[in-house]
Amino acid sequence: MAKTIKIDDELMEVIGREAEMMSRSLAGQVRHWVRIGMSIEKSRFFDQSRVVEALSGKLAPDALTAGEQEAYIDSLFDAARSGTVEQRKLFAGRKAEGLGVGLRDGEISRESDSAN
């Protein structure tokens, strides 16, 4: 039985671009990426629990494999986008000071509110 899920507009744009390039439907692209994710998590070269340890500060990020580091970085940016109230305050403060607060066009954004 089919289920409906909510996907934010930014991710839908990425899915749409990739689906078009690969001649897949949107659902086909999502299924493809889900299969890849499942394979990675089951791989002996990728351990999600190690990523969680690094995110909680129990393991140095440089001890992770390349794939684990990618998941670690993705998790950091996900947290920056939708984190706790305290995290949002931290990033808002960093943005106001002109410090790195996220990615824009693949580069670290350092723009303050006044520059937007």
Description:
By secondary structure, this protein is mainly α. The protein has 3 domains: 10-42; 46-82, no CATH class; 84-116, no CATH class. It is 58% helix and 5% strand. It has 5 helices and 2 strands. It has helices at 9-21, 26-42, 48-55, 66-82, 85-96; strands spanning 102-104, 107-109. A two-stranded antiparallel ribbon has the order 1-2. α1 (9-21) packs across α2 and α3 crosses α4 (66-82). The longest helix is centred in the N-terminal third of the chain and has 17 residues, at 26-42. The chain starts with 8 loop residues before the first helix and ends in a 7-residue tail after the last strand. The model is unreliable at 112-116 (pLDDT under 50).
Strand content: 5-15%
Shape: globular
Number of H/I helices: 5
Counting helices, strands and paired strands, the structural category is mainly alpha
- The average pLDDT value, as a whole number, equals 80
What count of structural domains? 3
Task: Determine Rg (CA atoms, Å).
Answer: 17 Å
The biggest beta sheet reads: 2 strands, antiparallel
- Order of strands, main sheet, comes to 1-2
How much helix is in the residues? 55-70%
Low-pLDDT segments, ≥5 res: 112-116
Order of helices and strands: HHHHHEE
Count of DSSP strands: 2
First and last CA, distance: 45 Å
